[in-house]
């Protein structure tokens, strides 16, 4: 911006006006500001840097720089087991925080686990198992301080649906369980592999919007599933879509429902929601909604035990196998038909689990402002699930609700996970009998009150406001899950996300630039209506790298701009266009197809006078003649000019000899300079 | 660029220096150049324009604008049958050109067709059939004037390999043929559908580089296949990879080869190559290589007929069924197991055929500078193949070699295709018996000399020079085809192309900007080493739209730049960084994830002083203390500043309230202005 130039610029001005006046006379580029050509990088370095940016963008080896060998080794071990580094600085103050947080999330997770296990069509104890081993593994390997590990609603549902489409859990529970472990194993392998290969960025391809929609839909689905337990319905559809669920609910209305169950459920649901409300109202009472579930479990269990309501058809948990996780190494399918199925399911479940965990990790990391190495996290989560699959756990990950509680309860480190896991251990060892009379209705209500938070309508509204396309993705995923199934919803989410990426790379934006009054700044005339076009010069900015995926479009779009412009010019007899200027600042890269496109653009500009004669259907004969005249007049004048190509682009323009073809003197540092070259008069009186 | 400002700017300067001096004192934005917020578009219009840009980028309805109903109808019909529009202006002069061109390509295509049919494991007549009907259809529906329609080497090979992996052509010729027609039918449907749905841009996802590699590989493979005919080998491998081919060639060396065949082949290959050479040497003799194949066919046939060389083991064509295409409507599988297979093969073959045709169409269109509607072309090609599949033709498309000859022979319109098709018709009716004694060796040599042009090593070299990644794609496809198979090569080509796109959208470039001496232009300091950084201000340019796929990376990358910079500053005690400026000119769009990323960036800047204390392993205690001090000093000073957000971005920054969060006065039109705000002193003395 000239106004910032200060005194020095003024002398510069005079100097340059002078230079320009002679330069533009025999069309050379002003002597200052040649467009820089970066020093040629050697191939290996180039390759190296690309790889680094792609896979080691977060520069994980930063701390290893110039360290002694032994130190490096230590750092390496610390990198795998972060507990060793933060453990050293651990103290009582922190322990206090972790203890409170750990106990709180434990009280929250135990009832949830039992319920979630049902979502995965597994016996309740497997939910608890998955809250015992995985958190321990994560505590030593993970680097997030706030994430709370365990089974989560969405993954449980997803796993449940995917598994039961292969094996019927009622008819064949053993094989079903074995497949579950197999899937868990491969989920872990997937996660760890992504981490080790530093492919963590792959999960970024599921857009935030899509996730919001997917989560919301899953939450609704899960809540609907709970109607079974909540209304005490005996036979319930296997499908998860809203229609068949509502059908089987209503069809069983007059005989299938159990009023006692409903009463218990309703009462405690009201209680839980009220507790939530209090927690929201005043964050000092965050612990109220946190312990409410456990309380309601205790109360309801007591109530059922005393009234023997189970005799009146109130379904209860009955038996939870006590004792800690048995080994399940031998149960995993490493051969046979189920290997492939388990593998497929594992990948899907693993990716979703990863998405959830990563989202949580990032959120809290940025709230407390510490760095998280996404790939390291994945390795930790992967290892955790692999070990889990050996110890009768199903896919565990970070839970939104529990992590939030963990954070609010003032957790300091992953120790809170250890505390939780100890509590779960004690529960498994000694307290399982107490759950015998726990009514399923309670678990249903707990799950319902847990998942409703996942319906993030506020986010949806914001998405609608910010980006309509994102909103489509969001709704697509949502309705996909609700009306079809979890997989369909997921599929929609992923494909819409990809569609967006493809759209982005196929149809880059272009803009006509104008001069902002009393400055030498050129901006999009749509954004700055006050900006004035330069007579005789059409300035087009291409807003993307020019790659094979869009090169052809870019070329044709530019030609279309030109055509429109010319018709405009023709209509109101303005100065005919002599220069087509392409502002390349945003064009960060260009490939062979892109170069070809530029060459074609260049050539067809030279051939423009042919153009008109061959499209009689579009313009009337009269115009035709006018055009031809105007073209004869301006033929050989219409020139292509480039402004501010970036380092890579200018380099490639040279290696491909396009720069030579176009003429070095047609490439400028700024639009202003280019304009000065095209129409010197203009520059004098802006 | 200040230098262009001229006198007007000077008064502006004084005015602004004044404004700034007071603005920077109580940190407000200079009163001029507010960042423009474009007028809110209504939703429908927005959606409409997006759709238009995506599917009607080439504005096909342009000519329909403000026309009468009847005119529109006519234009519509003309759009489907372009012959109606160019037919009206057709004249004898054009006919002359077309006649010559048509006869030339006919003489070229007849021997090629017979050979290509072999590549597709079909009887010779099917090659001729495919040069009779499809050209006629294309002539009335197509809009390219130079493309020559018929069977082509690569597609024939591809179809052959794909089909014989399903059905053995020798054991079960009838079913094989039926599947071929089915595939052709679906190839046509695929092409037409893409055109009608205006999804033509999908083929742009196969990058130029990948195509070069694929074509080259296919050419080599085809040439190797010809060794069978060329050496007169009886039993030849079915595989197409170089290793197994060479093995079966060499293994049959001492008994399987037939010297008479080799002699004939060698002689005529020499002749053909010499003809090619002449054609290259002097374009006036382009017709020499064009008619050479037919001549060699005639001569060799005569020779064999006279010498009865077929008695000495020279394999000959024997019988070509005479008469024109029989109907094959009933032969297409519309039901059963083969339907799916035909469908799959059809899609692949159709896409490749499309790619070749489109490439040719575009090339010649830009050489003669006329517009081609890619989607309309696809409809034409699709219709042509569908009709073809009903009339015993297999997939036809535009041929590189024949189109080039057509162009050089001075074709004016698609009439040259009609001429060719008439000649082929006559051949089928009356001349097929003459081919009885044609030695297969000749067909082999003709194919070899035809396909060697497809090995475009010059392009490969250019690709290597321009874009290394493209080169990898190119070589990947090439070696994939040569050493594995056509499908594998294709798969590699497509996946590498996609990998590139994903890389592009996941890892956008960022650059540190510096001030170019004696100007107010800020540019990438890598490209312009003379550019000087602004003390106390870190200016980072993000070179891409910020989407979910890269938002997280962008955020972390910026923070990393900042960290590096701070360590630098720390080392050589420069002015500490007070401002992080993000130049957003190239950021053409931002979605919800992008906004989140910016918010996180903003927050973590506010929390920077925490940052240091929690990473003791990286900096020594001493530094730690230094840092903390420096941070205490600069805490609350480090600010985020944005320069030149585009129309969509600024709009979204406002709707998402991030602009408010950041502070309107932190968003500037240009970097220069932002810098002036950040360090007013600096602006005075550049």
Automatic annotation (TrEMBL), chains A, B:
Residue intervals of the STAS domain: 527-678
Mode of membrane association: Multi-pass membrane protein
Keywords: Membrane, Transmembrane, Transmembrane helix, Transport
Gene3D superfamilies for the chain: STAS domain
UniProt main location, coarse: membrane
Annotated source species: Vigna mungo (Black gram)
Cited CDD domains: STAS_SulP_like_sulfate_transporter
InterPro entries: S04_transporter_CS, SLC26A/SulP_dom, SLC26A/SulP_fam, STAS_dom, STAS_dom_sf
A GO term for molecular function: secondary active sulfate transmembrane transporter activity
Family: Belongs to the SLC26A/SulP transporter (TC 2.A.53) family.
Pfam assignment, any one: Sulfate_transp
Protein name listed in UniProt: STAS domain-containing protein
Superkingdom: Eukaryota
Subcellular compartments: Membrane
Statement: the UniProt record of this protein carries the keyword Ribosomal protein: no
Region annotation Disordered: where it falls in the sequence: 1-33
Ranges annotated as spanning the membrane: 147-167, 179-199, 205-224, 259-278, 285-306, 343-365, 377-397, 417-435, 442-464, 476-499
SUPFAM superfamilies per record: SpoIIaa-like
Entry GO terms, CC: membrane
Keyword Metal-binding: no
């Amino acid at each position: 911006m000239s106004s910032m130039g200060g005194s020095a610029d003024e002398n510069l001005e005079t100097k340059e006006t002078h230079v320009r006046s002679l330069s533009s006379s025999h069309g050379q580029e002003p002597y200052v500001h040649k467009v820089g050509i970066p020093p040629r990088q050697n191939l290996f370095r180039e390759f190296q840097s690309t790889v680094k940016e792609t896979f080691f963008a977060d520069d994980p080896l930063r701390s290893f720089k110039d360290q002694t060998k032994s130190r490096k080794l230590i750092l390496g071990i610390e990198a795998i087991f972060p507990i060793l580094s933060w453990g050293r600085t651990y103290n009582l103050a922190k322990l206090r925080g972790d203890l409170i947080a750990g106990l709180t999330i434990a009280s929250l997770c135990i009832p949830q686990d039992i319920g979630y296990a049902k979502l995965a069509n597994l016996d309740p104890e497997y939910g608890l198992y998955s809250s015992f081993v995985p958190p321990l593994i994560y505590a030593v390997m993970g680097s997030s301080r706030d994430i709370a590990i365990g089974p989560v609603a969405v993954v449980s549902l997803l796993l449940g649906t995917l598994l039961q489409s292969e094996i019927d859990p009622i008819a064949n529970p053993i094989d079903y369980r074995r497949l579950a472990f197999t899937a868990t194993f491969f989920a872990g392998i997937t996660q760890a592999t992504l981490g080790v290969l530093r492919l963590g960025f792959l999960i970024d391809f599921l857009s935030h919007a899509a996730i919001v929609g997917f989560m919301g839909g899953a939450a609704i689905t899960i809540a609907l599933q709970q109607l079974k337990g909540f209304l005490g319905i005996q036979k319930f559809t296997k499908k998860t879509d809203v229609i068949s669920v509502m059908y089987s609910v209503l069809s069983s209305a007059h005989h299938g429902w159990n009023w006692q169950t409903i009463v218990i459920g309703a009462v405690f649901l009201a209680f839980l929601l009220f507790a939530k409300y209090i927690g929201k109202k005043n964050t000092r009472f965050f612990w109220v909604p946190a312990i409410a579930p456990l309380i309601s479990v205790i109360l309801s269990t007591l109530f059922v035990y005393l009234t023997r309501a189970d005799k009146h058809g109130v379904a209860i948990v009955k038996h939870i196998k006590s004792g800690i996780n048995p080994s399940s190494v031998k149960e995993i399918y490493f051969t046979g038909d189920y290997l492939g199925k388990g593998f497929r399911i594992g990948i899907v479940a693993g990716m979703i689990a990863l998405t959830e965990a990563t989202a949580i990790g990032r959120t809290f990391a940025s709230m407390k402002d510490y760095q998280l190495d996404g790939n390291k996290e994945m390795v930790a989560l992967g290892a955790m699930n692999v070990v889990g699959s050996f110890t009768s756990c199903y896919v565990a990950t970070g839970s939104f609700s529990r992590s939030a509680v963990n954070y609010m309860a003032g957790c300091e480190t992953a120790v809170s996970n250890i505390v939780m896991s100890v509590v779960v251990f004690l529960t498994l060892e000694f307290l399982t009998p107490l759950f015998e009379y726990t009514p399923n209705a309670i678990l249903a209500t707990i799950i319902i009150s847990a998942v409703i938070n996942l319906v993030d309508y506020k986010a949806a509204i914001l998405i609608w406001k910010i980006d309509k396309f994102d909103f489509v993705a969001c709704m697509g995923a949502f309705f996909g899950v609700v009306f079809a199934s979890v997989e369909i919803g997921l599929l929609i989410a992923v494909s819409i996300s990809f569609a967006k990426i493809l759209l982005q790379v196929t149809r880059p934006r272009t803009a006509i630039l104008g001069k902002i009054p009393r400055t030498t700044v050129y901006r999009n005339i749509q954004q700055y209506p006050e900006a004035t076009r330069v007579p005789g010069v059409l300035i087009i900015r291409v807003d993307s790298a020019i790659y094979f995926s869009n090169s052809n479009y870019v070329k044709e779009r530019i030609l279309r701009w030109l055509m429109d412009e010319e018709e405009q010019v023709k209509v109101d007899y303005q100065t005919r266009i002599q220069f087509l200027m392409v502002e390349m600042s945003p064009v960060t890269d260009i490939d062979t197809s892109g170069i070809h496109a530029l060459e074609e653009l260049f050539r067809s500009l030279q051939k423009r006078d042919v153009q008109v004669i061959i499209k009689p259907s579009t313009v009337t004969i009269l115009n035709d003649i006018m055009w031809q005249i105007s073209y004869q007049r301006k033929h050989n004048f219409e020139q292509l000019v480039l402004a501010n190509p970036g380092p890579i682009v200018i380099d490639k323009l040279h290696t491909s000899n396009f720069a030579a073809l176009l003429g070095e003197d047609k490439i400028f540092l700024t639009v202003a300079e280019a304009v000065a070259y095209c129409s010197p008069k203009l520059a004098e009186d802006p």
